[in-house]
Amino acid sequence: MNARWLRILPPSLRQRLEGRHLLQRILGNSGWLVADKIVRMGVALIVTVWIARYLGPKYFGLLNYALAIVGLFAAFSSMGLQGIVIRDLVRRPDEQKTILASAFLLRLVGAFLAIGLASIAIVLLRPDDRLAWSLVIILAMALLPAATDVIDYRYQAEVNARPVVLIRNGVFIVFSLVKIAIILGHGSVLMFAIAHTVETLVVANAFLLYAKREGASLRLSDATRVECLRLLKESLPLLFAGVSAAIYMRIDQVML
Description:
Layout: H1 11-17, H2 21-78, H3 82-91, H4 96-125, H5 130-140, H6 150-157, H7 162-184, H8 189-213, H9 225-255
């Protein structure tokens, strides 16, 4: 069956794509990903400028400083697993539950490690700044629910970005309105950090509910020691590369 979006294409291009179902899926998937970027960039630009004008240089700078500290260690939470897990899901679809559960467990462990490192870093860098401590800890806590991104890996392996894009953008737009409400209600900088973390938590729960409805529940009991060790061994080079990239991209914000 041809994709519905083919109807809007010129007849000559439509004829070239008819019957080529894999190519249709790839193009359709790319369309969803592009739409995701456009929506996020457009809305984020407006909201971020508004937040910057509201908080002013001092508090907006502090918020970005806290994000940079967390960003330095966020690579530990992702563990460099994305490409490896997607590859394995394509190669071994019958072991999907074991692969995803093992990746989920590793990401949770990495998230706890990242939270600990970020907390230590802010205490050492700003020993007397309680507000900075609070911002870093609140923002770092978002790394725990972000571990459910392994569900996204499944849909990437299936070349099906639609459900993920709809969930992420739906929650993103709602919380963009929440941030605007915080501005109009004269909220503190801490409230923006809390909104960021709660947004990640809501996305995580939406992912889990959708996966459960699709019969692909994510359970830690499905993880195995053998699979965890294999994933960890293969992901270590990517983890180190991710940490190096994070340091290169964020260290200037931290130093300034």
